[in-house]
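Next comes one such specimen:
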Amino acid sequence: MAGDWIKFEITTMDKPEVAQIADLADIDPDAVVGKLMRIWAWFDQQTEKGNAPSVSKKLLDRAVGVTGFCDHMKSVGWMEECDGRISLPHFDRHNGKTAKNRALTAKRVASHKTKGNAGSVTNALPKEEKRREDQNPLSAHEAVDPRMPSEMTLDWAPDQKLLKTYAVHSGVALNLFTEEARRAFTAHYEPRGQVNTQAEWVQMLVKWVLNDRNRAAASNIRPFPARQSNEPDFDDTSWADGLVVKT
């Protein structure tokens, strides 16, 4: 058993996948969220890593009271089936001990900040986060806490002071950090469930934009310009007229 609670993001209620399941099942989106919670809770209580080899979709459909609900989840990528085995992709992002430990860590850090115990925030972090913090040269110099661990979200925005520092260091112009680049970056990393500090996310964004700039520069390489008409043709000997050859 992983515990008696699961991690739930408020933004889940407005995700397009929820609306799509609601259309397929012909039920209210709020009802979809409730049934999703029931299935996620079942997997959290009955499995260790989100794999349920002995359960059928029919059983889960009966648990939520909607025939075909599991198939609807599969259609939006929120459930997988292979050789008769049902599983939840990215299970460890929201379920299991790993996800819960991350959520509790973030809550402890936020509590320390709220109480004004800035000097003891490090004590709220697990050893892995402390090591990342020690490797970050900007940790002690930023207005925001760059040590705060978090998963990527679609509405994430980089701290401007951190961004300017890393961009200048990498030689990337600030005007390249457009809204389009930010959206592409968050859309790429949001589904992965990866946890990094704020400083690490900003570093990754700078590298992302730098790679885009380099790729764009490489794709715009122009061929050498054509030779002008007044340049000598090496098949023509007229270019040698007037030369004096000593014998």
About this structure: The mean pLDDT is 74. The radius of gyration is 28 Å.
